[in-house]
Structure formats: structure tokens, C-alpha cells
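Course assignment 3, question 2. Fill in each field.
Student: A.L.
Task: Predict the tertiary structure for the chain below.
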Amino acid sequence: MITLKGEYIYLRALEPEDLEFIHTIENDESVWEISNTITPYSKYLIKQYLENAHKDIFEVKQLRLVISNYNDVALGMIDLFDFDFKNSRAGVGILVKELNDRSKGYGKEALKLLVNYSFSHLNLHQLYCNISEENEASIKLFSNQGFKKIGLKKDWILSNGIYKNELVFQLINN
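Answer field:
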């Protein structure tokens, strides 16, 4: 049985009520480096995005889910992006919004649920992620879920006038 429910969290579809939550995340300059964002998003644009969030992953090539606890508090988001049906792969991105909610296992449980869903329900062959070489928490998270480091992109990310390396991790469904 496929489930997006874990012991402490569950993954759910985006809802119109998530407007403020997503607006806050998308406009948090401290995470722009990992999301490749360079300008703020308006509530209007995010509202339009939410109105189309019901579309199928095969159509929009993305699946964004909210990480929620069982008190229905949104903790973060996890995404499949660049969904490639032909080659059976997708990228993975994850963010737990509040610093005090990090390192509590929510990201680990969310990633495990998404990996299982991707391989069993979407029949993907592989998942990948791109992580700044300095992001030790994400490197640990993905490594502990079986992702293997397969490459290094030198000077890939320009952040505050400094070029940073980015690592590529991959998980193949055997």
C-alpha cells in the first residue's frame, strides 16, 4: 500500500490556505540560494500557482507537497521537479521552514515517504538532488537515505559575490 503518512508527519497536496506559508518561504532570502531564486514572488503569482497546483505531474513536470505534522501545522515543503517520464527520473528538493523544526527527523521522514512514493507509485528509476558543498545538513540527510554523491559542479552557485561548488547526489531504484 502506498502512503504519504509517516510516524510524525504526512505529505499533502497544496491548498489555497497555503498562500501565506508559501509566500513566506518563497520570499525568504536566506533560502534563495537553494531555490535558485533572485527576485521576490507576489501573493498574486503564488495564488495563480496554487490555482494550478492540482495539475498532474505528467503535465507540469513537478509535484510540490507540504510537510505537515499531525496537528495540521505546515512544517515545510518537498518537491519533485524536472520530472522526466521518458527517462524515469526526477529531481528532489526539500525545505523545513523553521530552524527549530530542523534536525528533528521531519525532513528524513518526508524524504523517505517521497522516495517510496516515487519508486512504487510513479515507477521512477532514479532521483537526484543538487546540494551546495557547504550544506552539511542536506548532505547528511540525502546520504542517510541512500543517495550517492556522483559529481561535483565547480563554481556552480554565485552567492554574495562568491562562487560555490555544488554536489550532485543520485539514488537509483534497483
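Instructor remarks: The CA atoms of residues 7 and 151 lie 33 Å apart. The chain has a mean pLDDT of 88.
Grade: pending
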